Amino acid sequence: MILGSHVKMTADLYLEGSVKEALSYEANAMMIYTGAPQNTKRIPVERLHIQEAHQLMQEHGISPEHLIIHAPYIINPANSVKPEVAELAVEFLQMEIQRTKAIGSKYIVLHPGSYTTTDIETGIRTIISQLNSIRDIPDGIMICLETMAGKGSEVGYRFEQLAEIYEGLELKEHYAVCFDTCHTHDAGYDLTDLDSVLDEFDHYLGMDKMKVIHLNDSKNIRGARKDRHANLGQGMIGFDTLYNVCTHPRLEEIPKILETPYIDGKPPYKEEIEMLKNGV
């Protein structure tokens, strides 16, 4: 199993500390933000202990492909109402892509964004336009558009929406998908019939486009379109269904990243990874 979680990246060890945190959970994958997800402040990559982190990853058998970057929430490429916000999104995403390369990662996960006060069609056209304006994407880097729950004016909660975005992209070789179990459940997909969901994904996008999985339970009933994560087995998806996602032969080579809530202020990831490894 390729299992990990969101881990912190903080002073003074930065990425090296992130790897150590992942190892403390007995994980062989991990996901980080390159800085605070709510702002544009960033520590220079030269200070991030990148070489030390990769040495530690090599010693413990963690592939660089299983180090996932998550783009910050403030990037909204679907916003056509405020051009200055869209322009910031493109500039900042371009910087995050370069940081992803410098960190030695391959995949950067991106929320497609929200259309705010327009409509879904305008949102999709805006996303395509904004992403097509990003031309400097290093070889090997893939931007993984995340499946969304559909809350508010979110774009990308149906596979066909992501397919429409993908078809409009000029640099298709640099784009893929991150499949979030909580989001797809909240969007209305029945994960208890996983093969049917994967068949639908394959029809619209192709299974080769799924590069990352966010493995989360949901506090909501299916189709609620709310996006509230729950701990494994404590939500409306249930442990058995999530275990099936984790072990399904069509998904076994894809890294699974936990984004489940802290319990009493503490990360639950070591225990949840152990649950998945043991199947209980």
Count of β-strands:
10
How many helical stretches? 9
Strand % is 5-15%
Strand order across the biggest sheet?
1-2-3-4-5-6-7-10
Mean pLDDT: 96
Helix content percent band: 25-40%
Helix-strand category: alpha/beta
Low-pLDDT parts are none
- SSE order: EHEHEHEHEHEHHEEEHEH
Q: Sheet with the most strands? A: 8 strands, parallel, barrel
Overall geometry comes to globular
What does the oligomeric state look like here?
single chain
Q: Termini separation (Å)?
A: 15 Å
Global Rg? 18 Å
Offer a concise description of the structure.
By secondary structure, the protein is an alpha/beta fold. The chain is built from 9 helices and 10 strands.
Q: Keyphrases for this structure?
A:
280 residues, alpha/beta, 8-stranded parallel β-barrel
Protein model, in words:
This protein has 280 residues and is an alpha/beta fold. The chain is built from nine helices and ten strands. It has helices at residues 15-24, 50-59, 83-103, 120-132, 159-168, 181-187, 194-204, 239-247, 269-278; strands at 3-6, 29-32, 67-70, 107-110, 142-146, 175-180, 210-215, 217-218, 229-230, 256-258. The protein has an eight-stranded parallel β-barrel with strand order 1-2-3-4-5-6-7-10, surrounded by five helices. β1, α1 and β2 form a beta-alpha-beta unit. α1 (15-24) packs parallel to α2 (50-59) and α4 (120-132) packs parallel to α5 (159-168). The longest helix has 21 residues, at 83-103. The radius of gyration is 18 Å and the shape is globular. The chain starts with a strand and ends with a helix. The model has no long low-confidence stretch (mean pLDDT 96).
